[in-house]
Amino acid sequence: MRMVFRWFGDGNDTVTLDQIRQIPGVEGIVWALHDIPVGEEWPMERIQEVHKQAEAYGLHLDVVESVNVHEDIKLGLPSRDHYITNYIRTMEKLAQVGVKVICYNFMPVFDWVRTDLHRATGDGSTALFFEMALIHGIDPMELVRNINENSTLTMPGWEPDRLAHLTSLFEAYRNVTEEDLWNNLEYFLNAVIPAAEQCGIRMAIHPDDPPWPIFGLPRVITSQDNIRRFLKLYDSPSNSITLCSGSLGANPDNDIIGMIHEFHDRIPFTHIRNVRVFDNGDFIETSHRTQDGTVDIAGIVKAYNDNGFNGYCRPDHGRHIWGEECRPGYGLYDRALGIMYLWGVWDSLERSRIVKEKEASTV
Protein backbone atom coordinates (compact mmCIF):
# COMPACT_ATOMS: atom_id res chain seq x y z
CA MET A 1 0.00 0.00 0.00
CA ARG A 2 1.48 3.31 -1.13
CA MET A 3 0.15 6.27 0.85
CA VAL A 4 -0.57 9.58 -0.87
CA PHE A 5 -2.33 12.80 0.18
CA ARG A 6 -4.58 15.10 -1.81
CA TRP A 7 -3.21 18.62 -2.33
CA PHE A 8 -5.03 21.39 -4.17
CA GLY A 9 -2.03 23.50 -5.06
CA ASP A 10 -0.01 26.45 -3.88
CA GLY A 11 -2.36 29.23 -2.73
CA ASN A 12 -5.41 26.98 -3.02
CA ASP A 13 -4.92 24.77 0.04
CA THR A 14 -4.60 25.39 3.77
CA VAL A 15 -2.30 22.36 3.96
CA THR A 16 1.31 22.78 2.86
CA LEU A 17 3.68 20.35 1.19
CA ASP A 18 5.99 20.69 4.19
CA GLN A 19 3.19 19.46 6.46
CA ILE A 20 2.30 16.62 4.11
CA ARG A 21 5.83 15.25 4.00
CA GLN A 22 5.84 15.01 7.82
CA ILE A 23 2.93 12.54 7.87
CA PRO A 24 4.51 9.08 8.33
CA GLY A 25 4.51 6.93 5.23
CA VAL A 26 3.19 9.54 2.79
CA GLU A 27 5.22 9.41 -0.42
CA GLY A 28 3.31 11.58 -2.88
CA ILE A 29 0.56 14.06 -3.58
CA VAL A 30 -2.73 13.59 -5.40
CA TRP A 31 -3.11 16.74 -7.46
CA ALA A 32 -4.69 18.55 -10.40
CA LEU A 33 -4.72 21.95 -12.11
CA HIS A 34 -8.00 23.06 -10.62
CA ASP A 35 -8.05 26.46 -12.31
CA ILE A 36 -7.96 25.06 -15.86
CA PRO A 37 -11.52 24.98 -17.27
CA VAL A 38 -12.90 21.50 -17.85
CA GLY A 39 -12.14 20.32 -21.37
CA GLU A 40 -9.10 22.49 -21.97
CA GLU A 41 -5.67 20.98 -22.58
CA TRP A 42 -3.35 21.38 -19.60
CA PRO A 43 -0.27 23.55 -20.31
CA MET A 44 3.02 21.67 -19.97
CA GLU A 45 4.66 24.52 -18.08
CA ARG A 46 1.98 24.36 -15.39
CA ILE A 47 2.38 20.60 -15.06
CA GLN A 48 6.14 20.99 -14.72
CA GLU A 49 5.63 23.70 -12.11
CA VAL A 50 3.71 21.31 -9.82
CA HIS A 51 6.29 18.60 -10.50
CA LYS A 52 9.08 20.88 -9.28
CA GLN A 53 7.08 21.93 -6.20
CA ALA A 54 6.49 18.33 -5.17
CA GLU A 55 10.01 17.21 -5.98
CA ALA A 56 11.43 19.91 -3.70
CA TYR A 57 9.78 18.14 -0.75
CA GLY A 58 10.62 14.62 -1.84
CA LEU A 59 7.06 13.87 -2.95
CA HIS A 60 6.00 12.28 -6.23
CA LEU A 61 2.90 13.16 -8.26
CA ASP A 62 2.05 9.71 -9.62
CA VAL A 63 -1.70 10.22 -9.12
CA VAL A 64 -3.82 12.97 -10.68
CA GLU A 65 -7.33 13.65 -9.37
CA SER A 66 -8.95 14.74 -11.55
CA VAL A 67 -8.67 15.39 -15.25
CA ASN A 68 -12.37 16.15 -15.39
CA VAL A 69 -14.53 14.91 -18.25
CA HIS A 70 -16.36 17.63 -20.19
CA GLU A 71 -20.15 17.49 -20.06
CA ASP A 72 -20.34 17.28 -23.87
CA ILE A 73 -18.63 13.87 -23.63
CA LYS A 74 -21.13 12.66 -21.04
CA LEU A 75 -23.97 14.01 -23.16
CA GLY A 76 -22.64 12.40 -26.33
CA LEU A 77 -22.67 15.66 -28.31
CA PRO A 78 -20.79 15.99 -31.64
CA SER A 79 -18.28 18.30 -29.93
CA ARG A 80 -17.12 15.45 -27.68
CA ASP A 81 -14.33 14.42 -30.07
CA HIS A 82 -12.66 17.81 -29.62
CA TYR A 83 -12.68 17.44 -25.84
CA ILE A 84 -11.50 13.82 -26.01
CA THR A 85 -8.54 14.97 -28.12
CA ASN A 86 -7.68 17.56 -25.47
CA TYR A 87 -8.01 14.86 -22.80
CA ILE A 88 -5.56 12.57 -24.58
CA ARG A 89 -3.07 15.41 -25.15
CA THR A 90 -3.20 16.23 -21.43
CA MET A 91 -2.66 12.57 -20.60
CA GLU A 92 0.41 12.41 -22.84
CA LYS A 93 1.90 15.42 -21.04
CA LEU A 94 1.18 13.93 -17.63
CA ALA A 95 3.01 10.75 -18.59
CA GLN A 96 6.13 12.84 -19.23
CA VAL A 97 6.34 13.80 -15.54
CA GLY A 98 5.72 10.27 -14.28
CA VAL A 99 1.97 10.18 -13.72
CA LYS A 100 0.77 6.58 -13.37
CA VAL A 101 -2.93 6.96 -12.46
CA ILE A 102 -5.65 9.39 -13.49
CA CYS A 103 -8.71 9.37 -11.25
CA TYR A 104 -11.85 10.74 -12.92
CA ASN A 105 -15.62 10.38 -12.74
CA PHE A 106 -18.55 10.26 -15.14
CA MET A 107 -21.22 11.86 -12.96
CA PRO A 108 -23.53 14.30 -14.80
CA VAL A 109 -23.34 17.94 -13.65
CA PHE A 110 -22.40 17.30 -9.99
CA ASP A 111 -19.58 15.31 -8.47
CA TRP A 112 -20.14 14.54 -4.80
CA VAL A 113 -23.31 15.92 -3.20
CA ARG A 114 -23.79 16.94 0.44
CA THR A 115 -26.44 19.12 2.06
CA ASP A 116 -24.35 20.41 4.98
CA LEU A 117 -20.59 20.99 4.94
CA HIS A 118 -20.23 21.59 8.69
CA ARG A 119 -22.71 19.40 10.55
CA ALA A 120 -21.97 19.35 14.29
CA THR A 121 -21.17 15.84 15.54
CA GLY A 122 -21.51 16.27 19.29
CA ASP A 123 -17.81 16.21 20.22
CA GLY A 124 -16.98 19.69 18.96
CA SER A 125 -16.01 18.58 15.46
CA THR A 126 -18.01 19.09 12.28
CA ALA A 127 -18.30 16.94 9.18
CA LEU A 128 -19.88 16.65 5.75
CA PHE A 129 -23.50 15.50 5.96
CA PHE A 130 -26.18 14.29 3.53
CA GLU A 131 -29.86 14.70 4.40
CA MET A 132 -32.05 12.48 2.23
CA ALA A 133 -35.32 14.35 2.76
CA LEU A 134 -33.76 17.75 2.07
CA ILE A 135 -32.21 16.71 -1.23
CA HIS A 136 -35.67 15.80 -2.56
CA GLY A 137 -37.01 19.28 -1.87
CA ILE A 138 -34.10 21.65 -2.43
CA ASP A 139 -33.58 23.59 -5.65
CA PRO A 140 -30.24 22.65 -7.26
CA MET A 141 -29.25 26.31 -7.52
CA GLU A 142 -29.80 26.76 -3.79
CA LEU A 143 -27.56 23.77 -3.15
CA VAL A 144 -24.84 25.31 -5.32
CA ARG A 145 -25.08 28.58 -3.36
CA ASN A 146 -24.82 26.70 -0.07
CA ILE A 147 -21.77 24.75 -1.21
CA ASN A 148 -19.88 27.80 -2.43
CA GLU A 149 -21.05 30.23 0.27
CA ASN A 150 -18.26 32.27 1.84
CA SER A 151 -15.62 29.95 0.42
CA THR A 152 -12.30 31.37 -0.71
CA LEU A 153 -11.16 27.92 -1.84
CA THR A 154 -12.41 26.01 -4.86
CA MET A 155 -14.64 23.06 -4.04
CA PRO A 156 -13.71 20.07 -6.23
CA GLY A 157 -16.59 19.26 -8.54
CA TRP A 158 -18.40 22.49 -7.67
CA GLU A 159 -16.37 25.03 -9.64
CA PRO A 160 -18.48 28.19 -10.18
CA ASP A 161 -17.53 28.56 -13.86
CA ARG A 162 -18.88 25.07 -14.60
CA LEU A 163 -22.05 25.45 -12.54
CA ALA A 164 -22.85 28.90 -13.87
CA HIS A 165 -24.77 27.19 -16.67
CA LEU A 166 -26.68 24.86 -14.37
CA THR A 167 -30.11 25.51 -15.89
CA SER A 168 -28.96 24.75 -19.43
CA LEU A 169 -27.10 21.67 -18.22
CA PHE A 170 -30.24 20.25 -16.63
CA GLU A 171 -32.13 20.96 -19.83
CA ALA A 172 -29.44 19.15 -21.86
CA TYR A 173 -29.75 16.07 -19.65
CA ARG A 174 -33.55 16.06 -19.67
CA ASN A 175 -33.82 13.13 -22.10
CA VAL A 176 -30.51 11.38 -21.29
CA THR A 177 -31.22 7.93 -19.87
CA GLU A 178 -28.98 5.66 -17.84
CA GLU A 179 -28.34 3.56 -20.97
CA ASP A 180 -27.41 6.71 -22.90
CA LEU A 181 -24.85 7.52 -20.22
CA TRP A 182 -23.44 3.97 -20.41
CA ASN A 183 -23.11 4.33 -24.19
CA ASN A 184 -21.38 7.68 -23.92
CA LEU A 185 -19.02 6.28 -21.30
CA GLU A 186 -18.15 3.37 -23.60
CA TYR A 187 -17.43 5.81 -26.45
CA PHE A 188 -15.08 7.74 -24.17
CA LEU A 189 -13.28 4.57 -23.06
CA ASN A 190 -12.84 3.31 -26.62
CA ALA A 191 -11.10 6.57 -27.48
CA VAL A 192 -9.05 7.14 -24.33
CA ILE A 193 -7.94 3.72 -23.06
CA PRO A 194 -5.70 2.86 -26.08
CA ALA A 195 -3.90 6.17 -25.50
CA ALA A 196 -3.63 5.40 -21.79
CA GLU A 197 -2.06 2.03 -22.59
CA GLN A 198 0.55 3.72 -24.76
CA CYS A 199 1.31 6.23 -21.99
CA GLY A 200 1.55 3.59 -19.25
CA ILE A 201 -1.31 5.29 -17.39
CA ARG A 202 -4.23 3.61 -15.65
CA MET A 203 -7.53 5.44 -15.93
CA ALA A 204 -9.38 4.86 -12.65
CA ILE A 205 -13.04 5.87 -12.54
CA HIS A 206 -14.42 7.06 -9.20
CA PRO A 207 -17.81 5.75 -7.99
CA ASP A 208 -20.79 8.07 -7.94
CA ASP A 209 -21.15 9.91 -4.65
CA PRO A 210 -23.68 9.13 -3.31
CA PRO A 211 -24.32 6.00 -5.39
CA TRP A 212 -27.84 6.77 -6.60
CA PRO A 213 -29.51 9.28 -8.97
CA ILE A 214 -29.60 12.90 -7.81
CA PHE A 215 -32.11 15.50 -9.11
CA GLY A 216 -33.23 13.00 -11.75
CA LEU A 217 -29.74 12.80 -13.27
CA PRO A 218 -28.61 9.26 -14.15
CA ARG A 219 -25.66 7.66 -12.36
CA VAL A 220 -24.00 4.40 -13.33
CA ILE A 221 -20.95 3.61 -11.12
CA THR A 222 -22.99 2.70 -8.09
CA SER A 223 -22.69 -1.00 -7.27
CA GLN A 224 -20.71 -4.21 -7.68
CA ASP A 225 -22.80 -5.25 -10.70
CA ASN A 226 -22.30 -1.89 -12.37
CA ILE A 227 -18.56 -1.89 -11.71
CA ARG A 228 -18.42 -5.37 -13.24
CA ARG A 229 -20.25 -4.05 -16.29
CA PHE A 230 -17.95 -1.04 -16.51
CA LEU A 231 -14.77 -3.13 -16.47
CA LYS A 232 -16.13 -5.28 -19.29
CA LEU A 233 -16.69 -2.23 -21.51
CA TYR A 234 -12.95 -2.20 -22.22
CA ASP A 235 -11.02 -5.16 -20.85
CA SER A 236 -7.62 -3.65 -20.08
CA PRO A 237 -5.58 -2.92 -16.94
CA SER A 238 -5.66 0.70 -18.07
CA ASN A 239 -9.44 0.68 -17.63
CA SER A 240 -9.74 0.47 -13.87
CA ILE A 241 -11.45 1.92 -10.82
CA THR A 242 -10.74 4.15 -7.87
CA LEU A 243 -12.52 2.20 -5.15
CA CYS A 244 -13.93 4.72 -2.67
CA SER A 245 -15.27 3.09 0.49
CA GLY A 246 -17.11 6.24 1.55
CA SER A 247 -18.96 6.80 -1.72
CA LEU A 248 -20.01 3.17 -2.09
CA GLY A 249 -20.51 2.82 1.68
CA ALA A 250 -23.34 5.36 1.66
CA ASN A 251 -25.44 2.44 0.42
CA PRO A 252 -25.21 -0.29 3.08
CA ASP A 253 -26.17 -2.90 0.46
CA ASN A 254 -22.79 -2.47 -1.23
CA ASP A 255 -20.34 -5.25 -0.31
CA ILE A 256 -17.10 -3.29 -0.48
CA ILE A 257 -14.94 -6.11 0.86
CA GLY A 258 -16.40 -8.40 -1.80
CA MET A 259 -15.59 -5.78 -4.45
CA ILE A 260 -11.95 -5.67 -3.35
CA HIS A 261 -11.62 -9.44 -3.60
CA GLU A 262 -13.26 -9.47 -7.04
CA PHE A 263 -11.68 -6.39 -8.59
CA HIS A 264 -8.34 -6.09 -6.76
CA ASP A 265 -6.27 -6.36 -9.94
CA ARG A 266 -8.23 -3.45 -11.45
CA ILE A 267 -7.84 -1.11 -8.44
CA PRO A 268 -4.68 1.00 -8.83
CA PHE A 269 -5.99 3.67 -6.44
CA THR A 270 -8.27 3.59 -3.41
CA HIS A 271 -9.96 6.17 -1.21
CA ILE A 272 -10.53 4.84 2.28
CA ARG A 273 -12.95 6.70 4.55
CA ASN A 274 -15.86 5.98 6.82
CA VAL A 275 -19.47 7.13 6.96
CA ARG A 276 -22.29 6.49 9.38
CA VAL A 277 -25.53 5.71 7.57
CA PHE A 278 -28.84 6.25 9.38
CA ASP A 279 -32.07 4.32 8.92
CA ASN A 280 -33.70 7.18 6.99
CA GLY A 281 -30.90 7.26 4.41
CA ASP A 282 -29.02 10.24 5.87
CA PHE A 283 -25.29 9.82 6.35
CA ILE A 284 -22.45 11.72 7.97
CA GLU A 285 -18.73 11.36 7.46
CA THR A 286 -16.87 10.14 10.53
CA SER A 287 -13.33 9.44 11.61
CA HIS A 288 -11.62 6.60 9.76
CA ARG A 289 -11.92 4.32 12.80
CA THR A 290 -14.12 1.30 12.06
CA GLN A 291 -16.43 1.56 15.07
CA ASP A 292 -17.18 5.23 14.46
CA GLY A 293 -19.09 4.53 11.25
CA THR A 294 -21.03 1.95 9.28
CA VAL A 295 -18.19 0.90 6.96
CA ASP A 296 -15.86 -1.93 8.04
CA ILE A 297 -12.61 -0.04 7.48
CA ALA A 298 -10.47 -2.67 9.24
CA GLY A 299 -12.04 -5.37 7.06
CA ILE A 300 -11.40 -3.29 3.94
CA VAL A 301 -7.72 -2.84 4.79
CA LYS A 302 -7.47 -6.59 5.49
CA ALA A 303 -9.01 -7.37 2.09
CA TYR A 304 -6.38 -5.21 0.41
CA ASN A 305 -3.63 -6.83 2.46
CA ASP A 306 -4.90 -10.33 1.68
CA ASN A 307 -4.67 -9.53 -2.03
CA GLY A 308 -1.17 -8.03 -1.84
CA PHE A 309 -2.35 -4.54 -2.73
CA ASN A 310 0.52 -2.33 -3.90
CA GLY A 311 -1.53 0.49 -5.36
CA TYR A 312 -1.99 4.03 -4.16
CA CYS A 313 -4.17 4.86 -1.15
CA ARG A 314 -5.28 8.13 0.32
CA PRO A 315 -7.40 8.99 3.32
CA ASP A 316 -10.49 10.64 2.00
CA HIS A 317 -12.67 13.29 3.58
CA GLY A 318 -11.89 14.06 7.17
CA ARG A 319 -13.79 15.83 9.92
CA HIS A 320 -12.92 19.40 10.88
CA ILE A 321 -11.28 19.12 14.31
CA TRP A 322 -9.28 21.20 16.79
CA GLY A 323 -10.59 24.46 15.33
CA GLU A 324 -8.92 23.95 11.97
CA GLU A 325 -10.09 26.30 9.22
CA CYS A 326 -9.84 24.42 5.96
CA ARG A 327 -11.55 23.33 2.78
CA PRO A 328 -14.56 21.24 3.92
CA GLY A 329 -13.48 17.62 4.20
CA TYR A 330 -9.87 18.37 3.38
CA GLY A 331 -8.14 19.56 6.51
CA LEU A 332 -4.79 18.29 7.74
CA TYR A 333 -5.51 16.93 11.21
CA ASP A 334 -8.24 14.34 10.77
CA ARG A 335 -6.83 13.02 7.50
CA ALA A 336 -3.43 12.62 9.14
CA LEU A 337 -5.10 10.74 12.00
CA GLY A 338 -6.83 8.62 9.39
CA ILE A 339 -3.52 7.72 7.78
CA MET A 340 -2.12 6.55 11.09
CA TYR A 341 -5.21 4.41 11.72
CA LEU A 342 -4.85 2.81 8.28
CA TRP A 343 -1.13 2.21 8.83
CA GLY A 344 -1.86 0.71 12.25
CA VAL A 345 -4.24 -1.84 10.77
CA TRP A 346 -1.93 -2.55 7.82
CA ASP A 347 1.21 -2.91 9.96
CA SER A 348 -0.56 -5.28 12.35
CA LEU A 349 -1.61 -7.46 9.42
CA GLU A 350 1.91 -7.44 8.00
CA ARG A 351 3.42 -8.34 11.38
CA SER A 352 0.94 -11.18 11.81
CA ARG A 353 1.76 -12.52 8.36
CA ILE A 354 5.51 -12.45 9.04
CA VAL A 355 5.05 -14.25 12.36
CA LYS A 356 2.91 -16.93 10.71
CA GLU A 357 5.48 -17.44 7.94
CA LYS A 358 8.27 -17.85 10.50
CA GLU A 359 6.23 -20.31 12.50
CA ALA A 360 5.41 -22.29 9.36
CA SER A 361 9.07 -22.42 8.33
CA THR A 362 10.10 -23.95 11.67
CA VAL A 363 7.54 -26.77 11.55
Helix-strand blueprint:
Elements lengths: L1 E5 L10 H4 L5 E6 L12 H12 L4 E6 L5 H5 L4 H17 L4 E4 L11 E5 L5 E5 L1 H6 L2 H9 L11 H4 L2 H7 L5 H22 L2 E4 L18 H10 L5 E6 H5 L6 H8 L5 E4 L2 E3 L5 E3 L11 H10 L5 E4 L17 H30 L1
Parallel strand pairs: 1-2, 1-12, 2-3, 3-4, 4-7, 7-8, 8-9, 9-12
Antiparallel strand pairs: 5-6, 6-11, 10-11
Helix pairs in contact: 4-9, 12-13, 13-14
Descriptive key words:
14 helices; 12 strands; 8-stranded parallel beta barrel; globular
Structure explained in plain terms:
This protein has 363 residues and is of the alpha/beta class. The chain contains 14 helices and 12 strands. The protein has helices spanning 17-20, 44-55, 71-75, 80-96, 132-137, 140-148, 160-163, 166-172, 178-199, 224-233, 245-249, 256-263, 297-306, 333-362; strands at residues 2-6, 26-31, 60-65, 101-104, 116-120, 126-130, 202-205, 239-244, 269-272, 275-277, 283-285, 312-315. The strands form 2 sheets. Strands 1-2-3-4-7-8-9-12 form an 8-stranded parallel beta barrel. It has a 4-stranded antiparallel beta sheet with strand order 5-6-11-10. Strand 1, helix 1 and strand 2 form a beta-alpha-beta unit. Helix 4 (80-96) packs parallel to helix 9. The radius of gyration is 20 Å and the shape is globular. The model has no long low-confidence stretch (mean pLDDT 93).
